[in-house]
Specification:
Elements: H1 2-18, E1 23-26, H2 43-48, E2 56-60, E3 64-68, H3 73-80, E4 86-89, H4 98-105, E5 111-114, H5 121-132, E6 137-140, E7 161-162, H6 165-168, H7 172-186, E8 190-193, H8 196-203, E9 205-206, E10 219-222, E11 227-230, H9 238-246, E12 249-252, H10 257-262, E13 269-272, H11 279-283, E14 290-293, H12 297-303, H13 307-334, H14 342-354, E15 359-362, E16 367-370, E17 394-399, E18 401-403, E19 406-407, E20 410-415, H15 421-438, E21 441-443, H16 448-460, E22 471-473, E23 482-487, E24 501-504, E25 507-510, E26 514-517, E27 520-530, E28 533-540, H17 558-575, H18 581-590
Parallel strand pairs: 1-5, 3-4, 5-6, 8-13, 11-12, 13-14
Antiparallel strand pairs: 1-2, 2-3, 7-9, 8-10, 10-11, 15-18, 16-17, 17-20, 18-19, 21-28, 22-23, 24-27, 25-26, 27-28
Length: 594
């Protein structure tokens, strides 16, 4: 594989020379700027062999480098070894940002190319402005990899299906009307929708073009005058096509989007989300049109779940909780009796979810880390690299499901033996962070980076930390990672609002030893109004025991103990009616008082 990667780099350099380029940037995404992408657009993995879900590659005539974040440092070092591609650690002292690296490796007058359809408007501008300061030119040069990828996968062509109203809760017409109302508030009369989860939510449609995310590849333009869905015809059944057209939605081929945009007039004012729209689309909008830049309206609207959606999510959580209890019971009763490794655990997590009603697949590939593998934040387990699991140390498993009534994401770390004092302290400090955020009360207009300290304080007091965010938005039978809000140290201007559903996942990783993460999903709710203003709180959605055996009770204060006991009582009360007698007895033990 290493030699194959070297050959591909050589072929790319030949294409660069042919096109007069001194460097080529591969952002590793698709024209919809998705996190999880179809095989055709897995360009980063094709050119580098790195299989993580985040990163970019830059190739010059003499050098090649890959940037990724702390979740993937260990994985990238292993996968890039022997390829000639250097790992550059993002947001790490001593390592240059991509633009700085280009300036170090190229001279003024150099020409840098990239595929404009796979870079956001903002990314293109930031890179272009930075390079211009050194006299280096960035240009859209098309997809050079297409010329060196002889058996490149075709675009996915799976059939789109309707997310029934009993699950979607709000009809298409109402959603489109809401989008138009928000557009008018911004001064625009048209939005180009490019993000796949925005499309799926707007039209109450789902697909299977992307693994784990129930979305489909298409674009849309929405205005008061007309709504157009640009989609390959074979993806819609004649029945569904008729339903959409009856509701006033025009259906056009994907390839017609550029021509449609080219014909917009000076009467049109287009809303473009510069972080969710690729640069090629912007270049297709005529100069005569006014462009307003702002957050995609569907992105903003879908982030705030309705009461009916939240009720459905709670039902999905019960089903997911049953699957998790069944898994924990299976593990306790089989570990040490039959061979079990990390890959077995991954398969079993999915197997138990599959038994649940309205299950539509996993929401991401399970992360299963035993002992030292737990310290690899996004460890991708396979049959080839799976460690056998014994009755010793910690086992971390992060997994989730897609149900018609919600998307789930949960991490538990369990003790498989008696623990050392350090192990119990570490586990309890992570738990304290999760509980602290769960109990938060905060004023309206609070942002996620204001809350992040709550999850880290206990660890910071012991000189400990973790390198990833604490919470991400979660979609409604959609992407497990959903914006625009987050809870992390990095600045994010989006406030946390009632109805938003997020993860709560503080963690701790000791490289070469173990990893710890305890993750629940939470929903923001109104708390109270006082003379000091309106306040919000979180309610926990996830229903699954937390391993009491791993806790050092002396590190928990009375309020934290009360929260944990109350949570476990709720887990038992909500799940026990769905379990048989044997599983009920098991769950009773797992949720006993601390």
């Amino acid at each position: 594989m290493k030699e194959l990667i070297k050959n591909r780099i050589s072929e790319l350099r030949a294409m660069m020379q042919k096109n007069g380029l001194d460097a080529y940037i591969i952002y590793g995404t698709d024209p919809h700027l998705s996190e999880y992408i179809p095989e055709r657009w897995q360009t980063r993995a094709f050119i580098s062999g790195f299989t993580g879900s985040a990163g970019m590659v830059i190739v010059t005539d003499e050098s090649a480098a890959l940037w990724t974040d702390s979740r993937y440092f260990l994985q990238a070092e292993d996968e890039l070894s022997g390829t000639g591609i250097a790992l550059v650690k993002m947001r790490t002292p001593g390592f240059p940002e991509p633009a700085e690296w280009i300036k170090i490796n190229l001279k003024a007058g150099a020409l840098v190319g990239t595929d404009e359809s796979c870079i956001s408007v903002n990314q293109f501008r930031i890179m272009q402005n930075s390079l211009n300061l050194s006299g280096i030119i960035l240009k859209g040069s098309g997809d050079l990899l297409n010329e060196i990828w002889p058996e490149r996968p075709l675009l996915p062509a799976s059939e789109v299906y309707e997310h029934e109203l009993k699950f979607a809760c709000t009809g298409r017409s109402a959603k489109i009307a809401a989008i138009c109302t928000e557009l008018e508030k911004s001064g625009a009369n048209l939005q180009i929708i490019t993000a796949l989860d925005d499309l799926a939510w707007t039209f109450n449609l789902r697909g299977s073009d992307v693994e784990c995310n129930p979305v489909f590849m298409a674009y849309a333009c929405v205005s008061r005058e007309n709504t157009i869905l640009f989609i390959d015809g074979q993806k819609l059944s004649s029945e569904l096509k008729n339903i959409l057209e009856t509701e006033g939605i025009q259906i056009k081929a994907t390839g017609e989007l550029a021509n449609y945009l080219n014909q917009l007039s000076d009467n049109d004012c287009v809303l473009v989300d510069p972080d969710r729209t690729n640069h090629a689309i912007l270049t297709n909008i005529p100069d005569c049109c006014k462009v307003i830049e702002g957050l995609s309206v569907p992105c903003s609207l879908k982030a705030i779940k309705t009461e009916e959606e939240i009720s459905n999510i709670r039902q999905a959580m019960r089903k997911d909780g049953v699957a998790m209890v069944e898994f924990l019971f299976w593990l306790e009763n089989n570990l040490g009796k039959i061979p079990i490794d990390e890959f077995t655990v991954s398969e079993k997590l999915t197997e138990f979810r599959t038994k649940q009603p309205d299950f539509k697949g996993i929401s991401f590939f399970p992360i299963v880390g035993y002992k030292e593998h737990g310290a690899i934040v996004h460890f991708h387990v396979s049959k080839d690299n799976a460690l056998p699991i014994e009755k010793d140390g910690f086992l971390l498993f992060d997994s989730g499901g897609q149900y018609l009534d919600g998307t789930t994401d949960i991490t538990r770390t369990i003790a498989l033996s008696n623990l050392t004092e350090q192990q119990k302290t570490d586990f309890t400090l992570v738990l304290k962070g999760m509980i602290s955020l769960s109990m938060a009360r905060f004023p309206v207009n609070t942002r996620g980076y204001h809350l992040d300290i709550l999850a880290r304080k206990a660890m910071w007091q012991h000189g400990l930390n973790y390198g990833h965010g604490t919470g991400h938005g979660v979609g409604y039978f959609l992407n497990v990672h959903e914006g625009p809000m987050s809870i992390r140290q990095e600045f994010n201007d989006r406030v946390i609002e009632a109805g938003m559903v997020l993860s709560n996942e503080p963690a701790l990783y000791r490289l070469g030893e173990y990893g710890l993460r305890t993750e629940n999903m939470i929903v923001c709710q109104r708390a109270e109004s006082t003379v000091f203003g309106d306040f919000l709180k979180f309610d926990t959605l996830t229903l699954c025991p937390i391993d009491i055996n791993a806790i050092d009770k002396s590190l928990l204060n009375p309020e934290e103990i009360e929260w944990l006991n109350s949570y476990h009582q709720r887990v038992f009360d909500e799940l026990s009616p769905m379990l048989d007698e044997e599983l009920n007895a098991f769950l009773k033990m797992q949720t006993r008082l601390v």
